Please model this.
Amino acid sequence: MLVRLRRSYGQWLTSGGYLLFLIVGSEIDTPLGWRISAGIIAVLALFAWIAVLRRARAFADTPTSQIASAAQGYVELLGRGRPLDGPPLLAPLNQRPCLWYRYKVEHKREDKWVTESSGESNDSFLLDDGSGVCVVDPEGAEVLPRDKEVWHPSVDYRHTQSLLIEGENIYVLGGFRTLAGDGLQLSLAEDVKHLLAEWKKDMSGLLRRFDRNGDGTLDLDEWEHARVEARREVERNHRELRAAPDTHMVGMPGAERLYLISSLPPEKLRRRYLLWSFAHLVIFFAALVVAARNWTT
Model:
């Protein structure tokens, strides 16, 4: 289960498990209790070590690619983040323009912070490495932003917000694919049908265009004329789509591989995962020692 955790807080959940079973062992305070608690901690540490080691190896085994020449499949990219055209994405807590956000609103009740609302964006953005531009879909990714803010709008409330900002250097490890315009699979008949269905939603506009005799209805000849015009429009749109330049995209890879987006430097990410790996390994052996000592008691 821990191998499948893709969020950065999986490490903190594991650490919480260590603490929980350490408390359980101390509360029971019998050789059997310590053996059980230490055994569970050892299993947690082993799975956590494997999960983190897989992440560290993903960094080491995947060279950085250029967007313009990247192979289809699992790649490592590094470039500057840019927004897509259209209205900017705004962070919900302070309306700051961003490429991606995660937020949490907490309320203090009886000396405990209780989460009232939280969430994160799934809007796509662009990655530009100088050789080309790639669309990044953050849905399902483990996102590790450098920009994190915590503030108290009042004594009893705490706001936490993490952002990816336009212009930041952004590291992406994920599944890369290119949509070529001349290779698009387009259905003329289906698209004509859908276009006619859209036109029917505005019947007054449809009549203005094709009701030649002005009787307020479309006879067979007028309807056939509408079909011919719809076909011409769809064919024109298909020609434009096939002539469009290739679109590069990165998203969730297959085979349970790590999908990571971060504004932290790759070197810092590698060190972080190696340190976590070492820490879990130390805890694993320490738990085995505790279990062995209480086995002979």
About this structure: The radius of gyration is 28 Å. Residues 1-9 have pLDDT under 50 and may be disordered. Residues 84 and 240 are 20 Å apart (CA to CA). The chain has six helices and 13 strands.
